[in-house]
Amino acid sequence: MARYSRASVLRFGAVTAVVVAVAVLPLLIADRYTLKVFTLVGIQALVVIGLALLFGYAGQISLGHAAFYGIGAYVSVWLVRSAGMPWFVGPLGAVAVATVAGLILAIPTMRLKGHYLAMATLGFGEIMAVLFVEAKAVTGGPDGLSGISFPTIGSWVLRGPAENYWLVWAVVGVVLLLAGNLVRSRPGRALRALHASESGARACGIDVGRAKIAVFALSAGLAGLAGSLYAHFIGFISPSSFGLQASVLFVAMVVLGGMGSLGGAVLGAALLTMLEFPGVLLPGLPRQVSDIVTDWQPDIYGLTLIFVMLFLPAGLAGLGRSLVGGRGRRGDGGAPASGADVVAPEGKGA
Predict the structure, then answer these.
(1) Per the confidence metrics, is the pTM higher than 0.90?
(2) What is the pLDDT of residue 282?
(3) Residue 4: inside a domain, yes or no?
C-alpha cells in the first residue's frame, strides 16, 4: 500500500476543503455585493495564473499584462455586440486575439530578460493604453462601453451574481487543473530549468526561444480570457481599467502568493483584490477605517511587497509549506528543477 507523507495528506485536505468552500459559497452568502467581489477575485485570478506561469515558473517579467486583459475585453464585446456572434464566441475570440498579440510581442523580445523585458512590456502596455483611448469606434474612447450583455449559455442568460460566480470559478478550476498538469509535465520542467539558468537549459537541449514565446503567448491568452469574462460580468469597461496600475497589481499578486505556486498566486489575487473592498475582507469594519484603507491602497500594496521581499521571499505559499513542514519541488514552490530533470526520459526525470 502506498504511503503518503503528512504534508501530502494536509495538502490534499486543504485543496478539497477549498474546492468545496468555493462551490457552496453562493449557497451560504445572500449578499449580492459580496458575491460580485468574489467573482472579481476569480476573474483576476485567471490573469495571475497566466502571469505565475510566465513570471514564477519561466522567470520572464511582464508589466504589460493589463493590455492583454483589455484586448480580451474589447474583442469579446465587439464580437458579441457589433458582430452579432453568440456569447461563447466572445471568450474564444478574446483568447485567440490576445494570444496572437502575445506572440507578436514575444517574438521580437525573446532575447530580452530582466529589466529590459520589463521595459519592453511596459512600453507595449502604454501603447495599448493610448490605442484603447483613440480607437473610439471599437472601444468607445475614454468614456468606455456600457450596456454590455450578460453571459449566455444557449437560452440561459446568467444575470444573477451566483450564476456569474459559478461560471467564473468553473473556468478558474479548469484553468488551474490544466496549468497544474502543465507545470508537472516535461514542458513545465523545461520552464523551471529556464528560470534557473537560460544557458544551462540551452545546454540541455531546450529550445529557449520557443519556450519563452510559448509561455508568453499562453499567459497573454489567459489574460484575454479574463478580460472577456470581466467585460460581460461588469457590464461596463473603459481604458482606465487596463493601465499600468493594473499590470503592477497583477505582478504584486504573484509575488505575494509566492512565485512558483499556482495556488499561492490565486491566494495573492484574492487578498489584494479584496483589499479594494475592505468591508468584504474584514466584515464589520467601521466605515471610517474602510475609507482610510481605500485611500491608502497604493501605499499598502507597496508596503506589502517590501514586507514579502524582506521576510517572506517565498510568499504565502512558502509560509504555508513551512507551517506544514513540506518542502516540495519547484512545481509546488520548492527548489528549481535541474537541467537533468528536464532532458531525462519520462518516468526518470522530476
Answers:
(1) no
(2) 76
(3) no
